[in-house]
Structure formats: structure tokens, C-alpha cells
Write a structure and sequence with these properties.
Layout: H1 10-32, H2 38-65, H3 67-73, H4 78-108, H5 111-146, H6 149-161, H7 168-176, H8 181-189, H9 193-215
Length: 219
């Protein structure tokens, strides 16, 4: 683990990779879904809801624990922090549209509903990619300068503590999937020993089975 007295913001990049990957996959799943395949529509709809819940939770932590501190301490960059908050609102708008369209497609699996949902997911992805790039390039340096290490680590702890127990392996697997070896070692060093053992014995295979079932040849 890097020895530092300032926030290690590469952790945020790891989380962002999850949202980039999953947004792209979900759009692909909907785009490739066959008309009338109600079982697949239900399966993908559940994955979309998991994604939406995860993104709301992630942004809620930033709204609560990061933006207020930057507003107070990095006052020269108030416009930039406002930009991040405005992007969150835009993303919330795209998610609201998706949540409106999702039950219609899930219930009917018809082509018009699929096309509408795919368009909404594509619009969401465009806004998401803009926001994540801005946050990594422009805001994470401010976090390193203006937040203390304990304040930063609180964001990570709160993120993990609020994951339902039955979904911990899903969240952990999603974060580790595209991580480098060093990033995996860093992240797992923060997981309590019993959790690391359970991940090796049970969690990793459970996550891989879940992903194989959902993704199939579309991954």
C-alpha cells in the first residue's frame, strides 16, 4: 500500500472503472436483447437497478463528504465544484428517465420499448463519461490538496459499510475485476482478514458465476 499522508485518489479511479464498464455493458445488453425475450428483459432490468442504486450511493457520498469540504477550503475552485454538482443533477435526470422506461420494457420486452431504453442508456453514458473524466482530471488533485487522509478514508469506509451483506461479494468483485495487481493488493489490504478469506474461498467464484450468467457471450 502506498505510504502517504494525503488521499490516495487512485481508489476513485478504481470505482469509476466499474461505472464505465457497467454502463457500457448494460447498454449492450439492452441493444442486443431479442424482442419478446421477457426472461432476458427481467434479468437485465435487475442489473440496471443494481447499477442505478450503486451510482446513487456513490454520488450521495460525494455530495455529503467531498463537495462541502471543497466548497469550504478550495474557494478559488467553487465554479469547478459547482460543475460537479450540476453534473450529478444531470446524471440523476438521465437515471430518472431510465427508471421510467425500465418497467415498460421489463413488462413487455417489445422492440419500441427496447429502443427507447437503449437511447436513454446511451444518453446516460455520454453524461457519465464526461463527469468521470472531469472528476478524475480536475477534482481529484483538489481532493489530494484539501482533504485530510482520515476524511478521504471515511468516504471509502462509508461506501463499503452501506453495501448490503448479500451484495458485498458483488461489489468487491466489480471493483477488483479490472484492477491491476497493485490496486487489488491495496484494496484487499483494507478488507478485514475474515472477508479476504471468504472472498478467496467463496466470493470470487460466486461473482464469476453471477457475471457469466448475466453477460454470456455479450461480455
Amino acid at each position: 500500500m502506498p505510504v502517504t499522508t494525503t488521499p490516495y485518489t487512485q481508489e476513485m479511479v478504481m470505482i469509476h472503472r466499474v461505472f464505465r464498464r457497467e454502463a457500457a455493458l448494460l447498454l449492450r445488453f439492452v441493444t442486443w436483447a431479442n424482442a419478446g425475450d421477457a426472461a432476458r428483459a427481467r434479468q437485465v432490468a435487475e442489473a440496471v437497478r443494481e447499477y442505478i442504486g450503486g451510482l446513487h450511493h456513490h454520488h450521495g457520498l460525494e455530495d455529503e463528504l467531498i463537495w462541502p469540504l471543497l466548497h469550504a477550503r478550495a474557494t478559488v475552485y467553487t465554479d469547478l465544484v459547482n460543475r460537479m454538482e450540476d453534473q450529478h443533477k444531470r446524471l440523476d435526470g438521465t437515471l430518472t428517465t431510465i427508471e421510467t422506461l425500465l418497467p415498460r420494457w421489463e413488462a413487455t420486452a417489445t422492440e419500441p420499448e427496447r429502443i427507447a431504453l437503449a437511447a436513454a442508456l446511451a444518453e446516460h453514458q455520454d453524461v457519465l463519461l464526461e463527469h468521470l473524466a472531469d472528476e478524475e482530471e480536475l477534482v481529484m488533485p483538489l481532493v489530494e490538496e484539501h482533504l485530510t487522509l482520515p476524511e478521504w478514508e471515511l468516504v471509502g469506509r462509508r461506501g463499503l459499510e452501506n453495501v448490503p451483506k448479500q451484495k458485498v461479494f458483488l461489489a468487491l468483485g466489480a471493483i477488483l475485476e479490472d484492477a491491476t495487481t497493485d490496486e487489488r493488493d491495496l484494496f484487499m489490504s483494507k478488507v478485514p482478514l475474515p472477508g479476504r478469506v471468504l472472498w478467496r474461498l467463496v466470493g470470487k467464484r460466486q461473482y464469476e458465476r453471477q457475471m457469466a450468467t448475466l453477460r454470456g457471450p455479450a461480455a
